[in-house]
Design a protein that fits this description.
This protein is α/β, with parallel strands linked by helices and about 400 residues long. It has helices at about 20-30, 50-55, 70-80, 90-100, 125-135, 150-160, 180-190, 210-220, 240-245, 265-270, 285-290, 305-310, 320-335, 335-355, 355-370, 385; strands at about 5-10, 35-40, 60, 85-90, 110-115, 145, 165, 200-205, 230-235, 255-260, 275, 295-300, 315. It contains 16 helices and 13 strands.
Length: about 400
């Protein structure tokens, strides 16, 4: 590296709104511009976050791999002109592309992988096959960043090089996601709910991994004429999914759905209980966001969900709707005051352990360390996120 700035190429599958994509955006929004410069390469056509990232001052190059109009040559030309010190892959295909890009550059550039998923991939055999194949080349990555300890252990069991393992969890913008009574009232008014009606929410796109069926089965076991709880699903495809299930649901009128693109801090504030009903997950962003808004959570025991909740909410087995309903019942039976105290404790946990102010410096120290040949001591300031997960905590 010839100057004081570290130049990073971020390679990601897409720039649609999603957990990994949002984490990239959040990291870019907080990186020290005086020390770090970045460009972003998206394998797919431009998504919503392309514009957001460009507003931060970072160029985005889209390869359009699914459109048949590949734009590889010009992108590689821009990358060569940029002269990166690091190539950071994000997600499975982004990690593969990042590794392949080094062949096209005139000098060796260290590659970091960022693994944002858990295992297994029950409904994507092609991606699952790529994940297994990547184990054979994992030693070529300088570091493999995981956003959850559980995911790291599962990948190491597949043969991923444990010497490359680092864990940096997701981080949350606690200034955007914070308790807001006006936002709570706004969403509840839209749904036709008074402040005292318990609202249990699931924020996730419709996908088998998210197990919306588990959420609705638990809701059916909880609801009764004497139980006033309502249920909200938010995310891509939820309106159509709920409409398809409506004929089989008891006590219709208790269920609500909103598509993606809404004011997420307001959505979180409207909830009394946030839920992750997934059958597989790495590190659920939506639960951290809800907790930052002062909302207690019930999560399935997948990925690092239990580590995120930290004993404040409730953790239940995956694919067990009875246990999920019982956990909701436990929190509702505590009453509003005790639930509010749980929510306050939830926010304190996010502030102390998972805020962007805590997480983004881990990326900065790592990037600086790698770009300087691993000789910087700055990264050791956040060694708790960088140590291999198979060491005792």
């Amino acid at each position: 590296m010839l100057d004081s700035q570290v130049r990073i190429v971020h390679v990601i599958t897409s720039t649609r709104v999603g957990g990994a994509e949002m984490m990239l955006y959040k990291v870019l929004s907080r990186l020290d511009h005086k020390r770090f410069q970045s460009i972003v390469v998206s394998l797919e056509s431009p998504g919503t976050l392309s514009e957001w990232i460009e507003r931060l001052g970072y160029p985005v190059y889209s390869l359009h791999v699914r459109s048949g109009r590949l734009r590889v040559r010009n992108t590689i030309k821009e990358i060569r002109r940029f002269q990166p010190d690091i190539i950071q892959g994000w997600m499975v295909h982004g990690n593969i592309a990042a590794q392949l890009m080094t062949v096209l550059l005139p000098r060796d550039v260290p590659v970091l992988w960022n693994v944002r998923h858990s295992l297994p991939f029950p409904n994507n055999p092609m991606t699952a096959a790529l994940v297994r194949l990547m184990a054979y080349t994992s030693s070529r990555a300088r570091w493999i960043l995981y956003n959850s300890h559980a995911s790291a252990l599962k990948h190491e069991a597949l043969g991923y090089d444990p010497r490359r393992t680092l864990v940096i969890p997701n981080g949350f913008d606690c200034s955007a996601f914070r308790p807001d009574a006006e936002a709570r009232a706004s969403i509840r008014n839209e749904l036709g709910l008074s402040d005292g009606v318990p609202l249990i929410g699931l924020v996730a796109r419709v996908h088998p991994d998210k197990d919306h069926g588990n959420f609705l089965r638990a809701a059916e076991q909880l609801v009764s004429p004497g139980e006033p709880a309502h249920f909200l699903m938010v995310g891509r495809g939820t309106k159509a999914y709920l409409a398809a299930q409506s004929a089989a649901l008891k006590l219709t009128g208790r269920y609500h759905a909103l598509d993606e693109g809404r004011d997420m801090p307001a959505i979180m504030n409207a909830l009394d209980i946030a839920t992750c009903s997934s059958q597989t997950e790495a590190f659920p962003n939506v639960i951290g966001e809800a907790m930052a808004c002062g909302v207690p959570a019930v999560v399935t025991d997948v990925g690092d969900s239990a580590r995120l909740v930290g004993g404040i909410g409730r953790v239940v087995p995956a694919r067990n709707s009875a246990a999920l309903a019982e956990a909701w019942r436990e929190l509702l039976d505590l009453g509003q005051v005790a639930c509010r105290e749980l929510g306050e404790a939830s926010r304190r946990r996010i502030l102390s352990e998972f805020s962007l102010e805590r997480v983004v410096p881990c990326y900065e120290h790592l990037y600086w360390d790698v770009a300087h040949g691993g000789n910087s001591n700055a990264a050791e300031q956040h060694a708790e996120f960088r140590q291999p997960v198979n060491l005792k905590r």
